[in-house]
């Protein structure tokens, strides 16, 4: 059985969509894969209550003096599940090169922009400010450089007249919920290559 570990920091709606897809589409029987755990760096992340029976764990970054120490503890928690794939889903921490290297080839992220445009934060407002006519999200492999790494899939939504950052974010997010589970299932089917 291939274990998938999902990392979250907040509302966890992408994580919930992945867990639902895994159950609805019988990933364990059909793909030999299961969501083994959800790990949050925030003790009060709303997503922790949305894990639908999947094991949850908190590794609170505030309990560690350095980024390196937090990443080492996080990796230890993750490795307890011997994951084939580690999925960042609204995980709002910059990861150390050592952490990224440790999970090379099995660490992916979803970012709410059409990379390489708008790395970092406030992507939707920046897309509106730039006058973009389309926006979207990118699933990519994680490298030591923030929001870089091989692009695995992208999803486009229109920017509509009168959009605010909130309305655009909601349109992109609903697309993320459909797309991210599909990309993960595809990756697992393809042997994670
Ligand atoms: C999602 O839009 C995701 O793409 C974004 O945060 C949101 C998390 O929502 N991720 C990033 O900005 C990563 N840099 P969720 O917690 O409800 O899945």
Report a brief summary of the structure:
35% of the residues lie in helices and 24% in strands. It contains six helices and seven strands; from the N terminus they run E-H-H-E-E-H-E-H-E-H-E-E-H.
What would you note in describing this structure?
It is built from six helices and seven strands; from the N terminus they run βααββαβαβαββα. It is α/β, with parallel strands linked by helices and 193 residues long. The chain has a seven-stranded mixed sheet, with helices on both faces. The protein binds glycinamide ribonucleotide.
* Corresponding CATH superfamily: Formyl transferase, N-terminal domain
CATH fold group? Rossmann fold
What is Rg? 16 Å
The overall average pLDDT, rounded, is 97
Write the layout of secondary structure elements.
Blueprint: E1 2-8, H1 13-24, H2 27-30, E2 33-40, E3 55-58, H3 67-79, E4 83-88, H4 97-102, E5 107-111, H5 123-129, E6 134-141, E7 151-158, H6 165-189
Helix pairs in contact: 1-6
Glycinamide ribonucleotide (GAR) binds next to helix 1, strand 5 and helix 6.
Keywords:
single chain, 193 residues, alpha/beta, Rossmann fold, seven-stranded mixed beta sheet, 6 helices, 35% helix, globular, binds glycinamide ribonucleotide
């Amino acid at each position: 059985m291939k274990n998938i570990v999902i990392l979250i920091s907040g509302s966890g709606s992408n994580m919930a969509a992945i867990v639902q897809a895994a159950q609805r589409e019988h990933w364990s029987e059909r793909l030999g894969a299961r969501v083994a755990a959800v790990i949050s760096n925030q003790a009060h992340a709303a997503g922790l209550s949305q894990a639908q029976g999947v094991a949850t764990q908190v590794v609170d970054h505030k309990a560690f003096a350095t980024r390196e120490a937090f990443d080492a503890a996080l990796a230890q928690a993750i490795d307890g599940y011997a994951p084939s794939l580690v999925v960042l889903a609204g995980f709002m921490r910059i990861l150390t090169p050592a952490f990224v290297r440790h999970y090379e080839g099995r660490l992916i992220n979803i970012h709410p922009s059409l990379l390489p445009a708008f790395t970092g934060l406030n992507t939707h407002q920046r897309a509106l400010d730039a006058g973009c006519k389309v926006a979207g999200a990118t699933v990519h492999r994680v490298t030591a450089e923030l929001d870089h790494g091989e692009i695995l899939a992208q999803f486009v939504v229109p920017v509509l007249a009168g959009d605010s950052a909130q309305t655009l974010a909601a349109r992109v997010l609903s697309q993320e919920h459909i797309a991210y589970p599909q990309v993960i299932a595809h990756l697992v089917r393809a042997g994670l290559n």
